[in-house]
């Protein structure tokens, strides 16, 4: 009587076992997908060639990525963001004409400049080419012409750094040519956040090119950050820097995947590595972009409808 029942029980057991196996495979696959999704958002999956770096969500202050962020190092022409802020804080006459002098020449590293001693430009033009094209004599002239002179200007730079909580930072000149100008990636996030509040700094650091007239001769300048001219980037502030001591540096504020971020890249070892790193950061942020809420999507759609044509 029991023999007909045995095959039925065996088949039932096999079916249950198969179901459990399939359930286990599906659950394991879901877990694997969840782990892969979590792993893809991990900072360990972002490999940068810059010796120090930091990425911060500008609106929340959240640090998305850090690499040797507290290491203190020379910062080269990233200095010019501080130069611009200190100059603008003094509420100067931007139309005042300033003449380049021999004091503005680079006797430390012997860098080239097309602004010869005797060339005259407005303070506004000097600020523009110092920020956009990293023109060293323009930056030096801005520091020299500061109320109270160069020494007062340097003190103002260091005071500004302290006010911003940049405790790892020291400044010795207006250009960044001096290795006495040092900071950390963590401090430079604070510098970029502060500089981004200045309309002129935002405007001048994101110009792709500009022409000035010196002694009746036009001089064309171009932005030292090629990404500014790349239409696929939405950059709100940018500054490059380079000396042998500092390596190749780049700081920028940008909107990536509907998120405002600040990116600091210091001491990149290759000529194009800082640009490559910036693109790697962008790809990493876009790959791990958080889906927007339904409310957020409706709000964005409503804003687009209300926006003028």
Count of spatially separate domains: 1
Total strand count, please? 11
Stretches where pLDDT falls below 50 for ≥5 residues? 1-40, 292-309
- Sheet with most strands: 5 strands, antiparallel
Helix run count? 9
The level 1 CATH classification is Alpha Beta
Please bin the fraction of helical residues.
40-55%
Shape: globular
Structural class estimated from helices and strands:
alpha+beta
Query: What is the ordering of alpha helices and beta strands?
Result: HEEEHEEHHHEHHEEEEEHH
Q: Any idea what the CATH superfamily is called?
A: DD-peptidase/beta-lactamase superfamily
Average predicted confidence as pLDDT: 85
Beta-strand content bin: 15-25%
What can you see in these coordinates?
- The chain is of the alpha+beta class and 309 residues long.
- The protein has helices at residues 5-40, 79-89, 123-132, 136-144, 150-163, 185-195, 199-205, 273-287, 294-306; strands at 50-57, 63-67, 73-74, 97-99, 120-122, 182-183, 209-214, 217-222, 235-243, 247-256, 259-268.
- The chain has one domain (49-288): DD-peptidase/beta-lactamase superfamily (Beta-lactamase), CATH 3.40.710.10.
- The chain contains 9 helices and 11 strands.
- The strands form 4 sheets. A 5-stranded antiparallel β-sheet has the order 2-1-11-10-9, with helices on both faces.
- Helix 2 (79-89) packs parallel to helix 6.
- The longest helix has 36 residues, at 5-40.
- The termini are far apart.
Which features characterize this protein?
309 residues; alpha+beta; Beta-lactamase; five-stranded antiparallel β-sheet; two-stranded antiparallel sheet; 9 helices; 11 strands; globular; disordered N terminus; disordered C terminus
């Amino acid at each position: 009587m029991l023999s007909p029942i045995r095959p039925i029980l065996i088949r039932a057991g096999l079916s249950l076992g198969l179901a459990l196996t399939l359930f286990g495979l599906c659950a394991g696959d879901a877990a694997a997908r969840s782990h892969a999704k979590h792993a893809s958002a991990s900072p360990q999956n972002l490999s940068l060639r810059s010796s120090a770096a930091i990425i911060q969500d500008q609106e929340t202050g959240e640090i998305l990525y850090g690499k040797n962020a507290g290491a203190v190092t020379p910062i080269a022409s990233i200095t010019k963001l501080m130069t611009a802020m200190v100059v603008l804080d003094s509420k100067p006459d931007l139309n005042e004409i300033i003449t380049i002098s021999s004091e503005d020449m680079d006797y430390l590293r012997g860098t080239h400049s097309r602004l010869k001693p005797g060339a005259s430009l407005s303070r506004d033009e000097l600020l523009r080419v110092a920020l956009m094209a990293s023109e060293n004599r323009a930056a030096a002239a801005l520091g020299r012409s500061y109320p109270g002179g160069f020494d007062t200007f340097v003190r103002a730079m260091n005071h500004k750094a302290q006010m911003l909580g940049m405790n790892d930072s020291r400044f010795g000149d207006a250009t960044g040519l001096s290795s006495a100008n040092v900071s950390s990636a963590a401090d430079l996030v604070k510098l970029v956040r502060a500089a981004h509040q200045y309309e002129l700094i935002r405007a001048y650091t994101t110009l792709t090119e500009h022409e000035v007239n010196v002694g009746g001769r036009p001089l064309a300048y171009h932005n030292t950050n090629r990404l500014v001219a790349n239409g696929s980037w939405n950059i709100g502030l940018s500054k490059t820097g380079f000396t042998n001591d500092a390596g190749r540096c780049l700081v920028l504020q940008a909107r990536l995947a509907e998120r405002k971020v600040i990116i600091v890249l210091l001491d990149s070892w290759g000529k194009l590595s800082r640009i490559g790193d910036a693109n790697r950061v962008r790809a990493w942020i876009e790959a791990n972009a958080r889906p927007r809420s339904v409310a957020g999507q409706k709000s964005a759609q409503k804003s687009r409808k209300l926006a003028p044509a």
